[in-house]
Amino acid sequence: MKSLVNLCFISIVSCGITSLSAAESNSSNQNIYTTSSQHQHSKSKFNGCTDYGIKSRAPKFSAPPSQGFRHHSSSLLSKWFTPYHMVHDELVNPGEAVRITGKFDYDWFLHKDLEDEYIHAYIFGTGMTKWKYLGQYKTNRDGKVTVKVPGQTVGDYIIRMVVDGDHSMADGYISVRSPGRQAVLFDIDGTLTLNDAEQIGDYLGLSTATPFYYAKETIQAYRDKGYQLIFLTARPYWQTKGSRVWLRNTMQQADWHLRTNIDGEIFTSFKGHAEYKAAYIKKLQQEGINIVRVYGNASTDIKAYEMANIPKHETYILGRHAGKKDTQTVGDDYTLHYSSTVVNTPKANCKP
């Protein structure tokens, strides 16, 4: 269904999409399925801030036996094309139930949706010793499922969604935070990467997006100080997979909390970026997240942060829009900003 989207992406420098949809999926099968924890690791214990060790501590994962695809067309899709599945991250308060959306499609160009097929969902995270089965869901016409996750304690949780037909899978994350948790938010393209166009080569596998000098050290400093890291981008959902890889391999960070646009439709390619970002920031604020500092590069970033009532003295902009509308200038890279501002930022109040 998305055959035109990547054509837009390849021919245009920036193709962030900002249309949000409310597609729902049906849930069934409430039986509990768990996996063995015999290979559990003890690395990186939770310190009360962000549980970066959940992936290293996760027990060996075993999906249930495949029942095959419901449709022959899905079997051919899986056989011929590479999966580009993704799961959107969520951030909620302790004990708050949440719906987390998974999107399933195949091929880097076509992004053909996996329709009317079963998906298995699992959770593992802070304080758990086993993967827990959340149920079986069926994709809708857009290849989406919405999984209901019961409330959890403070910590971080992997939500793993597995296609029944071929066992291809995608991970998303739920971060459970108490109100008042302090966070620092970053845009990605042109803010952490040298320019917006670098996402094209990165997505096509032709090159790896180059970060600004000392951007990696800046992010790590905030992490060391205990701030919640939030990466909010107008990249369409089908760039989530590559975005997580870039954060992990190039920036040497955990690949969450990452929020990409929930849709990748061509019809909204050039509008709504500011509104999309502002709406998500407001959602985080309603959860009690205290976003103390933001970074961006575009005029739409400035507008979004302004709409979300982020103070101008904590709005840092790179590039040609730096300093506009009373925002703060980072500089040609992060070097001076790191030594003059980031190093002197006090530690976050994340630990209990």
From TrEMBL:
InterPro entries: HAD-like_sf, HAD_sf, LNS2/PITP, PI_transfer. PROSITE patterns: PROKAR_LIPOPROTEIN. It comes from the Bacteria. Residues 1-22 form the signal peptide. Pfam families: LNS2_PITM1-3, PITM1-3. This is Haloacid dehalogenase. Keywords: Signal. Residues 184-327 form the LNS2/PITP domain. It comes from Spartinivicinus poritis.
